[in-house]
Amino acid sequence: MEVFMGQPLTDDLGFLLSRASGALVRATNTALGEHGLRVRQYSVLVLACEREDGVTQREVADVLGLDPSQVVVLVDELADTGRVERRPGPDRRTRLVVATPAGRRVCEAAGAAARAAQEGPLAGLDDGDRDRLREVLTRVWAASG
Amino acid sequence: MEVFMGQPLTDDLGFLLSRASGALVRATNTALGEHGLRVRQYSVLVLACEREDGVTQREVADVLGLDPSQVVVLVDELADTGRVERRPGPDRRTRLVVATPAGRRVCEAAGAAARAAQEGPLAGLDDGDRDRLREVLTRVWAASG
DNA sequence: CCTCCATCGTTGACAACCTCCACGATAGCG
DNA sequence: CGCTATCGTGGAGGTTGTCAACGATGGAGG
């Protein structure tokens, strides 16, 4: 009598996380497409916009959880379209990624589109749900460094 | 005076979701590697184990949020290693994916390894947190169909 | 019965993404 | 000075996501 004893897939937080994440990314990606961006590029751009004096690519990699070599390509693409520029940093090994005025405008517009697109999947969550979710996900990230 | 007005990246649920999801998937993947599986394959295998009489590939695609063409490859790999077999279904268009006894054993072992690996990232969450998280993520998925 | 349309699995192509390794340039320490 | 670490960069190889097409089958309606 061999019945299934394991944890059902829909109880697996890893699975639920990646499925929900996938849904959000898909929605966001189609919204960002109209602004010539994908989620990855958008994330880098936002990071560059947040810090008036630029971010090092290492920081970007750490915050986003990406391999540094990926960041190179993302910054290249953003720089090629004039949304960001690389400037020398105090440490001559690092190069600071700084958003251009055009980049900031794109970031605002794309951000609005992205937030609107996410309202579909997130429709069922009230402000309390969202705050709790943010807090929990931040803890998960902190515990996986 | 152009300061940054947008939503900080760390408040974006889509971003937090995909970052946390990435961390979980990475941890799970390295744990599953010792059992010759990746998360995708493991998910399909669990699904096949959950249903005694098999799953159609369409169901797999729907539950996992994948393109049907991806499911073909995943089932191929699981079948090649004898963990699953394809059986004809009542509807002659569909083919039922059924776990073999060997597949069930692997599923149990791999599942234990996966759950253990996830305890790293999820360490900070108590049972209440996890239940709420499951519930919220399920709602997100439901709202994005 | 036959036609038209939907569904399921499958294949192939292509873009995006992740992971790892190696390199040159620079920094910092002893 | 020499040793080691860090930052950005490039490249290889494998995995995943997306899309379009196809054959086979099923189902509804004339």
Structural class of chain A: mainly alpha
Count of folded domains of chain A: 1
CATH architecture title of chain A: Orthogonal Bundle
Strand content of chain A: 5-15%
Q: Helix coverage percent of residues of chain A?
A: 55-70%
CATH level-four homologous superfamily name of chain A: Winged helix-like DNA-binding domain superfamily/Winged helix DNA-binding domain
Overall CATH class of chain A = Mainly Alpha
Q: Which word captures the global form of chain A?
A: globular
What is the strand tally of chain A? 3
H/E element string of chain A?
A: HHEHHEEHH
Strand order of the largest sheet of chain A: 1-3-2
The rounded Rg of chain A comes to 18 Å
Most extensive interface: pair and counts? A-B, 64 and 64 residues
Uncertain segments of chain A: none
Oligomer: homodimer
Number of helices of chain A: 6
Query: What is the makeup of the main sheet of chain A?
Result: 3 strands, antiparallel
Here the CATH topology of chain A equals Arc Repressor Mutant, subunit A
Mean pLDDT of chain A: 95
Question: Can you offer a commentary on this structure?
Answer:
2 copies of one chain form a homodimer. In chain A, a hairpin with a 6-residue loop joins strand 2 (84-88) and strand 3. With 145 residues, the first copy, chain A, is mainly alpha-helical. Helix content of chain A is 63%, strand content 8%. A 3-stranded antiparallel β-sheet of chain A has the order 1-3-2. In chain A, helix 1 packs across helix 5. The model of chain A has no long low-confidence stretch (mean pLDDT 95). The first copy, chain A, has helices at 13-33, 39-50, 57-64, 68-80, 101-122, 127-142; strands spanning 55-56, 84-88, 95-99. Chains A and B meet through helix 1, helix 2, helix 5 and helix 6 of A and helix 1, helix 2, helix 5 and helix 6 of B. The structure holds a DNA duplex (30 and 30 nucleotides).
